[in-house]
Specification:
seven-stranded mixed β-sheet, 10 helices, 17% strand, globular
Length: 275
């Protein structure tokens, strides 16, 4: 005769209760993260334009009315899609104005960009979209490997009616050979890796622009050790975002020699195949 469980303890029930508690914990964390990702306020385009005017003025940054209006449209598209797609950790318009828009566009004041320009690992469009706003007639190519970001970039292109803006839904590697005169990246990828991945699409004399933080010296040293046959360092500019404590480095390499072409690859993409 089986003994009764005097404490009415059920191992199965205990496991179920624990699973329920764990699920609630996961849901609570997800909910908290969702709140963290969601902007408390998304301004209409006209109000965003006015606020960006004040932000740029307070930080001594020059921007035309037409450019600022376009940036305001992009700001709204970015935050409207933020909650579900988690594109940026910056959620208020001041941070976006300084750490996204000024950060991307200040490059045009300290160097001359070469076009066509390939933006490697653009994410939701940085620095490529702000640069497209500043250079509406130049060809800019946005490369991004995450599909939800690619869909967003195409949505932005359609909504903002950009011309001569191409979008590649893949990561760039040495098999990508569409000719460009400039490559720019704001991504965290190591300098050497980016040089290796773009060595066959960048033309002789073309420049690779790395938007980096102040601690980039080890990456520069490694790149010079491993890629000096094909690239030379032509500029290393230290600067701050105006009236902030945000320190930046713009590191520019120039291609000086062609690399041996890799063997054919089934994943190779020509420009017309992807946009």
């Amino acid at each position: 005769m089986a003994h009764k469980n005097k404490e009415n303890y059920s191992p199965y029930k205990a496991r179920q209760e624990k699973a329920g508690r764990d699920l609630k914990s996961v849901e609570m964390i997800a909910s908290q993260r969702g709140v963290h990702r969601r902007a408390e306020k998304i301004y209409p385009v006209n109000e965003a334009n006015d606020r960006l005017f004040d932000i740029f003025k307070n930080h001594d940054f020059k921007c035309s009315h037409e450019e600022r209006l376009k940036l305001s449209q992009f700001y709204r598209l970015l935050l409207e899609n933020q909650e579900h797609k988690n594109f940026t950790r910056l959620l208020n318009i001041k941070d976006i104005g300084i750490k996204h828009f000024i950060d991307c566009l200040i490059l045009t004041e300290i160097c001359e960009l070469k076009f066509p320009l390939l933006d490697v690992g653009t994410g939701p469009g940085f620095p490529g979209i702000p640069l497209k706003i500043r250079f509406p007639d130049e060809q800019i190519i946005l490369a991004e490997g995450v599909q939800k970001r690619v869909e967003f970039l195409k949505h932005v292109r359609e909504q903002m009616r950009f011309k001569n803006l191409d979008i590649i839904g893949r990561n760039i590697n040495p098999y990508f050979m569409y000719p460009v005169n400039g490559v720019i990246t704001r991504a965290v990828e190591d300098v050497t890796n980016t040089l290796k991945n773009t060595v066959n699409c960048l033309q002789l004399g073309g420049h690779v622009y790395f938007m980096k933080g102040p601690g980039v010296d080890p990456e520069i040293e490694k790149a010079q050790n491993e890629m000096s046959e094909f690239f030379k360092l032509v500029n290393d500019i230290t600067y701050d975002l105006p009236k902030t404590e945000n320190h930046r480095r713009l590191v520019i390499f120039e291609k000086i020699k062609h690399a041996e072409l890799p063997e054919d690859d089934d994943n190779d993409i020509l420009l017309n195949d992807s946009f």
